[in-house]
Design goal:
- The protein is of the alpha/beta class.
- The chain has one domain: P-loop containing nucleotide triphosphate hydrolases (Rossmann fold, 3-Layer(aba) Sandwich).
- About 40% of the residues lie in helices and about 15% in strands.
- The chain has a 5-stranded parallel beta sheet, with helices on both faces.
- β5 (about 120-125), α6 (about 135-150) and β6 form a beta-alpha-beta unit.
- The longest helix has 16 residues, at about 135-150.
- The chain starts with a helix and ends in a 12-residue tail after the last strand.
- It binds adenosine-5'-triphosphate and magnesium ion.
- Adenosine-5'-triphosphate (ATP) binds near residues 53, 58 and 193.
Length: about 200
Amino acid sequence: MTREQWLERCGVGARYWDACRERLREPQVICAYLDDLEARVKDGRGMLLLGPIGVGKTAALALIAKEAQGKVPGVWYVTVTRLIGHLLRQSELRREMVYERAEYNLPKGREEVVDPKVWPLLLLDEFGAAYESDYAMAALEDYLGWRYDHKLATCVASNLTPEQIRRNPHYARLVDRWRETCDVVVIGGESQRRPSGD
Ligand SMILES: Nc1ncnc2c1ncn2[C@@H]1O[C@H](COP(=O)(O)OP(=O)(O)OP(=O)(O)O)[C@@H](O)[C@H]1O
Ligand SMILES: [Mg+2]
């Protein structure tokens, strides 16, 4: 599988395929996690990335997916909003198209239904985005609680401040679990996004 095919399978958007270590804002903690990725994922350990808009949280998750190729058999990048959509429609199963003959530039194999819920690494982006209902929040808590109970690693990125997390009992409950299983990285500073032409 090429790197592009792997990142597509993980659900990482092409904008982030060039994520690199050199541009990380908090390289020490994130690189320590990357250097020990296989063992940490096996041990159910993840990372909680907190910081304001544009500081590189999604890029850091994309970099984790990229470096996991060949080390972790299944990695799923998804935003909270998309995950909740799947949970409410009960459509979180994915159909992986793998072809019998190498054609359309796709690898050989067969079609399989897979459930990313049991994959060893979940990369969950935009935690703290608005939830449609209490039921949606409960479905998310149940999903993430299941992964926690089964010692499956989850890396999470969020714009929430520690104060916003404390004030919301649902967030506080989930983040309390992640404090136990994740390295916490707080990324600061201005947005790294630049207007085009700069
Ligand atoms: N490690 C990196 N490698 C390559 N590009 C990066 C890296 N970190 C940040 N960037 C670039 O900086 C910009 C902002 O990064 P990113 O989208 O990851 O921020 P974010 O924290 O996820 O923002 P938001 O809170 O809006 O989702 C993007 O254009 C991204 O490609
Ligand atoms: Mg982002």
